[in-house]
Amino acid sequence: MTRAAFFDVDHTLTTSVGLFRFLSYWYAATGRPPHHYVRERQRFKAMTAAGIRREETNRAYFGLYTGADRLEIDRLARDWFRAELTAGGHFNEPVLAALREHRAAGDLIVLVSGSFPALLEPLADHLGAHHILCSEPETDPVTDTYTGRLVRSPHQPMIGRAKADAVRLFAAAHRVDLAASTAYGDHISDVPLLETTGRAVRVGCDPTLRQLGARSGWGYLPGAPDPHPLPLPVPAGGVRTPERLVP
């Protein structure tokens, strides 16, 4: 059997919430005015403040892609990731160093995220990650456009307990020794994932994770710093506004 290292992505491995950084980038690239992004971001913050579960806000997020061309989103996602690398500050360096140590030791590197393949595949390629477990938007087989729904399969969206269930299924399929493996997460919703492996590392200062970690003997790495500002793209035939995205 082999070992694996399972990494949550947003605010664990990276310094921002990629879903919203990309949303702003996509809106700008397609000529939507900045207030469209601000309106959606405020809507999701209000949902969270009202106590709506992360699973439901994740589903609502993918509703924004209804009718979007999958290949165009893939192209823009690659452009966005290159822009993040150019801007700098995209990675939480202590966690990135841990990932590189696991990879050098021969561990499987698995990204476990509520994000989706268009955003995660460029990241996985850059890092040399072996597998991605994530939310999967449904596409229309005829038009190859997003339907605004997630696929009808287990572990969707990839939030909370779905992460742990997907990791167990992955381990069985790939002969991974979970007792010898490690998981990394920053949020209370990552607790099921952190409890799945023999070693867990909490990232950042979430007070609930700190208490659980103290009882369970979890490791610790510093939380992600604030991300760098990201210059937004100019739409075809457009003019760049002076605004810069800071989530």
Features:
single chain, 247 residues, alpha/beta, Rossmann fold, six-stranded parallel β-sheet, two-stranded antiparallel sheet, 43% helix, globular
Secondary-structure blueprint:
Blueprint: E1 4-7, H1 18-29, H2 34-49, H3 54-62, H4 70-87, H5 93-104, E2 108-113, H6 117-127, E3 131-134, E4 137-139, E5 146-150, H7 161-174, E6 182-185, H8 191-194, E7 199-203, H9 207-216, E8 219-221, E9 230-231, E10 244-245
Parallel strand pairs: 1-2, 1-6, 2-3, 6-7, 7-8
Antiparallel strand pairs: 4-5, 9-10
Helix pairs in contact: 1-2, 1-4, 4-6
Strand percentage lies at: 15-25%
Total number of helical segments?
9
The CATH class, by name, is Alpha Beta
Major sheet characteristics: 6 strands, parallel
Radius of gyration: 18 Å
Tally of separate domains = 1
Q: Would you identify the CATH H-level superfamily?
A: HAD superfamily/HAD-like
Cross-sheet strand order for the largest sheet: 3-2-1-6-7-8
- C-alpha termini separation: 41 Å
CATH overall fold name: Rossmann fold
Query: Based on CA inertia axes, which overall geometry fits?
Result: globular
**Uncertain stretches of 5 or more adjacent residues:** 240-247
Characterise the protein shown here.
The chain is an alpha/beta fold and 247 residues long. It has one domain (4-226): Rossmann fold. It has helices at residues 18-29, 34-49, 54-62, 70-87, 93-104, 117-127, 161-174, 191-194, 207-216; strands spanning 4-7, 108-113, 131-134, 137-139, 146-150, 182-185, 199-203, 219-221, 230-231, 244-245. The strands form three sheets. The chain has a six-stranded parallel sheet with strand order 3-2-1-6-7-8, with helices on both faces. It has a two-stranded antiparallel sheet with strand order 4-5. Helix 4 (70-87) crosses helix 6 (117-127). It is globular, with a radius of gyration of 18 Å. It starts with a strand and ends with a strand. Residues 240-247 have low confidence and may be disordered.
